[in-house]
Amino acid sequence: MKKSLKFSFSFLLIAILMFSLAACNNASKSETKKLEKVRIAEVTRSIFYAPQYVALAKGFFKAEGLDVTLTTTPGGDKTMTALISGGADVALVGSETSIYVYAQGANDPVINFAQLTQTDGTFLVARDKIDNFSWDLLKGKTFLGQRKGGMPQMVGEFVLKKHGIDPHKDLNLIQNIDFANIANAFASGTGEFVQLFEPTASIFEKEGKGHIVASFGKESGHVPYTTFMAKESYMKENKATIEKFTRAVYKAQKWVESHSAEEIAKAVEPYFPDTDLAIMTTVVERYKSQGSFATDPILDEEEWNNLQNIMKEAGELPKEVNHKTLVNTEVAEKVIKK
């Protein structure tokens, strides 16, 4: 009788355990099903966008109930094409692209809703080591610049003019090389100066291929260099999703602000498997020290006007656009208040 009772009790325990595991699995599956899919198209893969990768790596998007997939679509034109055609829900790209689309008479304009970076992310790299750099050293030299019409090129020209250099008269400006091949062109011997993003600039310095002599980000001031944006129709139809997305971004921004460069580099390391951790740490520290990472997602009017001034100076502003027309700060403001 006792054996029978023991057997029954053991069987009951096993049954309860199996039921609990099944319930947990079903709950887990249910949670997975509840996650809402959001597709991001990023203009390039860059440590400059560290807060975005932190949001992914630390599960901030998932905690908001979002299943975020990230695709790199090199170039602003390709990124906007992906967004407008429905190939992506959200784009991470320079704010100038939203102005270009609007100026073309888009029926469904692209709205900036969360700022990620607030300075230019490029650096001036010289082929030879310069102990006492001054901008006038560029005069008469060959300068390998960025693609015409993009933010790096416009900021580059803005900074050169700020230092009394006419980029089209005072130096030999090369702008016809594709973004992905600029670094290779410089490494192969083209130009005496080049405008590069990180980590390429630091890698070149480590390998002796060039020397960082100035920061375009420090020189140009605050500007909405890279923002998350979506079509107006998507934002209206998915208000809760946009709020959750922005909240995750804000959490990541605060995390980046409160952690060391080394901790940030380790967090985003999976997204840069071919980059040395020491180089990544140097890059993150450089961006942090010059305030490149936005500490909140609000794109304010002053930054927006600075962007348009830079575009106008470069002769690339198709028309002036009011801040409220293409920028939505309501979501970001709501997230911050909460």
Automatic annotation (TrEMBL):
Annotated family: Belongs to the bacterial solute-binding protein SsuA/TauA family.
Lineage: Bacteria, Bacillati, Bacillota, Bacilli, Bacillales
Native source species: Neobacillus bataviensis LMG 21833
Residue ranges constituting the SsuA/THI5-like domain according to the UniProt record: 50-259
Superkingdom assignment: Bacteria
Main location (coarse class): periplasm
Signal peptide residue numbers: 1-22
Name used for this protein in its record: ABC transporter substrate-binding protein
Subcellular location: Periplasm
Cellular component terms per the entry's GO annotation: periplasmic space
UniProt KW keywords: Signal
Keyword Signal included in the entry's annotation: yes
